[in-house]
Amino acid sequence: MKKYEFGNLFYDESYQDDAMLMRYALNELAEHLGHSVENPISLYMLCLTFMIPMKVCDAIFIDIAKLYNTGDKGRFKDLDFIKKEIFMKHFPDAKQFTPIIVEAFLKAFAKSRFPDLIAYI
After folding, report:
1. Inter-residue contact 91 to 109 (CB < 8 Å)
2. Which residue segment(s) compose the domain that 3 sits in?
3. Distance, CA of 48 to CA of 39 (rounded, Å)
4. Among the four residues 39, 53, 59, 64, which has the most C-beta atoms within 10 Å?
5. Could you report the per-residue pLDDT of 40-52, keeping only the tens digit for each?
6. Is pTM, for the whole model, over 0.85?
7. How many CA atoms lie within 13 A of 39 on its CB side?
8. Do 45 and 28 share a structural domain?
9. What are the angstrom distances between the C-alpha of 87 and each of 5, 63, 83, 90, 91?
């Protein structure tokens, strides 16, 4: 009998359809709770929506935290800077992100990690 592990859903090609099914189901549940790009309620749902791996999300978080701790919170208004210097550094596909998507991630980071940041977005 084959042993099934949750991690196989993401790494074994035979489970790709199941992984997509889970992803779509989670997105639907999040939407029912009010999650959207305009109003992100979960950083991790945004990562799932845009297929950003957990390690990449953590690396982006570290760079956001470094920028946040510099005290130059005005830089968070420069969405092009954030996109190029932080998101694309860790996730090259972010070059396709619109300012609305970058802002959604900043809102999600603010809601989950840096509440004071909301005033600068």
Report:
1. no
2. 1-32
3. 15
4. 64
5. 999 999 999 898 9
6. no
7. 6
8. no
9. 31, 9, 5, 6, 6
Q: What is the mean pLDDT of residues 20-30?
A: 89
Supply 67's token pair: 């920028």
pLDDT digits 0-9 by tens, 69-81: 888 888 999 999 9
Together in a domain, 26 and 66? no
Amino acid at site 29: L
The count of domains in the chain is 2
Backbone angles phi, psi at 6, to 5 degrees: -55, -40
User: Read out DSSP for 41-57?
Assistant: S-HHHHHHHTT--HHHH
pLDDT value of position 71: 81
**For the CA atoms of 108, 104, 85, 110, what is the dihedral angle to 10 degrees?**
-30
pLDDT above 90 (res 86): yes
